[in-house]
Amino acid sequence: MTVVRRWPQVLWLTVVWVLLWGTVSVKIVVGGILVAAAVTALFPLPLLPRLPFRPWALLQLGCYLLVDLVVSGVQVAWETLRHGPRAQAGIVAVPLLTDSERITTFVAAATALTPGTVVLQIDRAGGRLYVYTLGLRRPDDAARVRRQMERLQERMVRTVGEER
Fold first, then answer.
1. Exposure of 93 by Cβ count < 10 A (0-12 exposed, 13-18 middle, 19+ buried)?
2. What is the pTM of this model?
3. Which domains does the chain have, with CATH numbers?
4. What are phi and psi of 12, to 5 degrees?
5. What angle do CA 54, 60, 63 make, to 5 degrees?
6. What's the CA gap between 144 and 136, in Å, rounded?
7. Tell me: the pLDDT tens digits for 74-104?
8. Among 48, 49, 61, 68, which Cα is nearest to 158's?
9. What is residue 90's three-state secondary structure?
10. Separation between Cα atoms, residue 19 and residue 100, nearest integer Å
11. Mind giving me the DSSP string for 56-75?
């Protein structure tokens, strides 16, 4: 019964099994299904609610991330060319706008894609992300990073979740 409700996990594990073997045959696919069913039954992951399908919000998020990727790339290149080894970076504490671990994970992943930034730590108890970022030269640069991260979180919440 549990394995039947977890068919997407079984399917995904079977695909991984076939990819690891590097060839497709009936024996490998059936073996993959059996191994995936056994792994899913012995080590069940918690069932998560399905992500909402919000195509307009997803398109807006994709465009936002694409623009952010280009703008951040130009900013990192400029900072590197202009200041070289004297380029300044720092860690900025950013308040979390949601209790959702899923959204926090998506935000951290999107931040890692952006040149010049990475989430160093997620403080769930304190409700903060600690973001390492390049280009902190003035006191108001930290506030700019906080605003950018809050906008990203708001877009992520509109796309895949609920606010706290």
1. middle
2. 0.72
3. 2-42 (no CATH), 55-160 (3.30.310)
4. -65, -45
5. 140
6. 10
7. 999 999 999 888 889 999 999 999 888 889 9
8. 61
9. strand
10. 32
11. HHHHHHHHHHHHHHHHHHHH
- Give the C-alpha separation, 48 to 161, whole Å: 12
Contacts of 90 (CB under 8 A, 6+ apart): 132, 133, 136, 142
**Which tokens is 143 given?**
């506030």
Name which of 160, 162, 151 is nearest 114 in CA terms: 151
* Tokens, residue 62: 């994709």
Sequence-distant (≥ 6) Cβ neighbours of residue 132 within 8 angstroms: 89, 90, 91, 117, 118, 119, 120
Task: Count other Cβ atoms within 10 Å, centred on residue 35.
Answer: 15
Q: Which helix (H) or strand (E) holds 92?
A: strand 89-95
Does residue 55 or residue 162 have the better pLDDT? 55
DSSP H stretches of helix in the chain: 2-5, 7-21, 26-42, 55-83, 101-113, 139-160
And the tokens for 81? 């060319």
